[in-house]
Amino acid sequence: MSSPRLWLVGCGNMGGAMLRQWVASGVVAPDRIDIVNRGDRDFPGGVRQARDLPDGDLPDMVMLAMKPQQIDDIAARYGERLAGVPVLISILAGVEEAALAKRFRTGAIVRAMPNLPVGIGKGVVGLYSESADAAARDQVAALMTPLGLVEWIDDDALFNVLTAVAGSGPAFLYRFIDALAAAGATLGLPADQAERLAVATVQGSALLAAAADVSPAILADRVASPGGSTREGLNILDREDALKTLLVETIRASVRRNAEMAAAARQSAVGLGRITLFPFVLSLSHRPSSPRTGTRRTALRQAQGERQGGSSSRNRTKRLSWCRNGANSDCLEGAAMVPLYP
Fold it and tell me: Are residues 130 and 109 both part of a single domain?
């Protein structure tokens, strides 16, 4: 299979981990990758980095890898340029496919939720799409396979659960490793030695669980001899399902937050559609003659008026219209001009 052409909008820690593993595995050639980011980062040689999307034909796939709260700025800046791209992949937590579809006119949209171990090819990537056909699904799955376990979710309502279990799961496991080491240190082990023991224990146990033909629950019982010390420790964790209850509450909190972010993205999409119904009228009536200095100056005056209580909601709507439909790449937030780069 030939190497796909891929654009990344934003490329932070997670996007960078995915990128490096793609290049290392050979699934994507570095000279087939373009990144638009705030500034150049240390990526494999041959990968192109810039402050704007390249000219020319659209790529096979585009991946949104900026922060979720930047979605409206990115849609305003790049929505038209990305119109018609065959596959749009989003790793934005909490941003549903419908919210993406309102902002980007693309072929298929696929939500992806990777976790940090994708950088060593041992991660998990959860996928969901209503719009992708079999060919698009195969294309995305082939891209994600070198990153680790790839799992498709059939129910959008469960994507937040997958995000909490797999996407946030490494953080919860790191916290457990830290607590296991801290317990050893509390009872007398040197802290650095306790940490090495905890990390190696979790690493070996995870590898064994991955290779076993029985569940982790059965493996735990196999370690614990009746009346032995391991059983005594398990009795603490199992009492009134203490550990399970704690983890259910942990996952539930993450799921709830993902749902809140999804609701905010939906509301933002409604507001964006409402504002951009009238860009031509607003532009004719209120756009300054100078597309850069005039917009900055007038918007700043309006922001100052708002702080003094003299600006109406209509003025705020005008200001938002300039941000999203203006000729320049800047947007006023409060009294500051904020670049729209990821």
Answer: yes
